[in-house]
Automatic annotation (TrEMBL):
PANTHER family: FLAVIN REDUCTASE (NADPH)
Record-linked SUPFAM superfamilies: NAD(P)-binding Rossmann-fold domains
GO molecular function terms listed in the Swiss-Prot or TrEMBL record: oxidoreductase activity, acting on the CH-NH group of donors, NAD or NADP as acceptor
Domain NAD(P)-binding: 9-192
Protein name (Swiss-Prot/TrEMBL): NAD(P)H-binding protein
Amino acid sequence: MSKFLVVAANGKAGQKIVNELIARDLDVTVAVRQANKTQASQVIIKDLFELTVSDVKNFDIVIDAFGAWAPEALQQHTTSLEHLAAILAPNARLVVVGGAGSLYLDASHTVALKDSSGFPDAFKPLASAMGEGLARLRTLDVDWTYISPAADFVADGERKGHYVIEGEVFTTDDKGVSQISYADYAMALVDIATSGRYQKERHSVRW
């Protein structure tokens, strides 16, 4: 059985992912900076940037749920990925909780959602920082998968038990809605992580 480490697990997305792993009776450990807020019993209390090779050497799949919103910390969306890639075991997989703003508007992959008209100005710095992190991740020597949520990422939304996996192009349902709950995103992420597929690829998930 694969051993999972969820980094920055105290956040809302991290907690949902941990719940999903536990519900499937998978071997999960969490790495949190402060007191553990998750249901996991195996805990490493350490800042992401203080994790070492020794801390992560026994894990097959590391799920990165890190997020930073303060302007002075936005560059950590890149440096956190660099750090994790540097310390992972050679055959470990890095699965990243991503953002929707860097999804492309069409198959030409020239214009991102964050650069389109109507994208909220308040979210542009974060979306740009996460996009830069993804661009850096593509260059790192690590087995990675980056999973973007729908544009409307609903923290307390219901778990419907279904989702659609798309590629790097922003899509909507037949009503023009791009939405998914944290709970169904967590289900999709764990399905993808355990599938052994989508290596060195970015995908998006929505209802």
